[in-house]
Amino acid sequence: MKEMFDLRGKVAIITGCNTGLGQGMALALAEAGADIVGINRSNPTETALLIEKTGRKFHSVIADMSKMETTDLVIKEAVSAFGKVDILVNNAGIIRRNDAIDFTEKDWDEVMDVNLKTLFFMSQTFAKQVMKQGSAGNIINIASMLSYQGGIRVPSYTSSKSGVLGLTKALANEWAQHGINVNAIAPGYMETNNTQALRADENRSSEILGRIPAGRWGTPSDMAGPIVFLASEASRYVHGYTIAVDGGWLAR
Ligand code: NAD
Fold first, then answer.
1. 123-175 confidence digits (pLDDT tens)
2. 21 Cα nearest atom in ligand 1
3. What family does the Swiss-Prot or TrEMBL record give for this protein (predicted)?
4. What is the pTM (predicted TM-score) of this model?
5. Domains of the chain
């Protein structure tokens, strides 16, 4: 059974792993045996150290995931560092908060570009490489509770993450036949920079906590089991599915 979750010999690309959920997932994939290619706008020193401690290799690529041209560079760098790619985690994401009535085009475009447009073209470039290799591949997109719900004052974020859920199914339909599993994880309310404003707002924070059956905010380490499952042989017949890692939030 352990072998099904074993990622030794695999190469995993993860976007946005200098902090938060990306760092937690990069570490989990390395602990399961994968070498890691991390894509960030600045050098992720802490993540690199954590991964090297596991005995796995870490290759850093400095790139901006708001630009779809980045996707070619990422795959080329990964292949030149490790010779191939096996796993892609589309984690980089941003959020902008404002009333819908005042929401600007800039806050719309910036969020859609990173969270949805580049995620699609990154997946496309990765899939072309995997098909060229003639090997299997695993794509894991990071969705959100706002893939299911509307949220408040985050219209571009909700639109992008609802798009991620649909796109995960669309890509699975086309690429399952090529041995590529496309799935997603929808994290609940997790303690990272992304939720700092929410946690600082006493009312919103206690409202949120009161609805989580597990009785606590999630942490990056709560992503470890689900990401290794979706990156491994253990999920080989799982296609187009989004797993909520939310302490039971959606069950309420
Ligand atoms: P975070 O802000 O700590 O991390 C976001 C990551 O994306 C960082 O590494 C950041 O550097 C990277 N990033 C953003 N824009 C980038 C760009 N243009 N180029 C390269 N990298 C870029 O937040 P997080 O909570 O760890 O978020 C990770 C993912 O999880 C995001 O997609 C987020 O939407 C999603 N998510 C988070 C929560 C939560 O509660 N924290 C809940 C649901 C979904």
1. 999 999 999 999 999 999 999 999 999 999 999 999 999 999 999 999 999 99
2. 26
3. Belongs to the short-chain dehydrogenases/reductases (SDR) family.
4. 0.98
5. 2-251 (3.40.50.720)
